[in-house]
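Feature request, filed as a ticket because there's no other form

It would be nice if the structure record came with a short human-readable summary line next to the tokens. Right now we just get the raw output. Example of a typical job, pasted below so the devs can see what we mean:
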Amino acid sequence: MNDASKSDSSVIVFDPDASALVNSIKEILGGLLGDRRLTTETDLFELGLDSMARLELLALVEERFAVELTEDMTQEFRTITRISRAIRNASS
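Raw output as currently delivered:
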């Protein structure tokens, strides 16, 4: 293995669709909603993600992922897929 391939293999490219992003969001939601089985399409509003919890989620997402999201965007936080999309859009 040459030096170039060594350095290439040590580089971690952030893939916003990766399971790490989803798992991080699930971890945050687990703290807000209790330890529940969440899929990427679970309706979070049906699980009790009310307006106060959405604001807390907004703050935690901004802190964890270093993105700026608006309070209006929390209306879209219905699923993990939508939260992930908001993070990807804000980070690009």
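Something like this underneath would help us a lot:
Confidence is low (pLDDT under 50) at residues 1-14.
Residues 58 and 74 are 7 Å apart (CA to CA).
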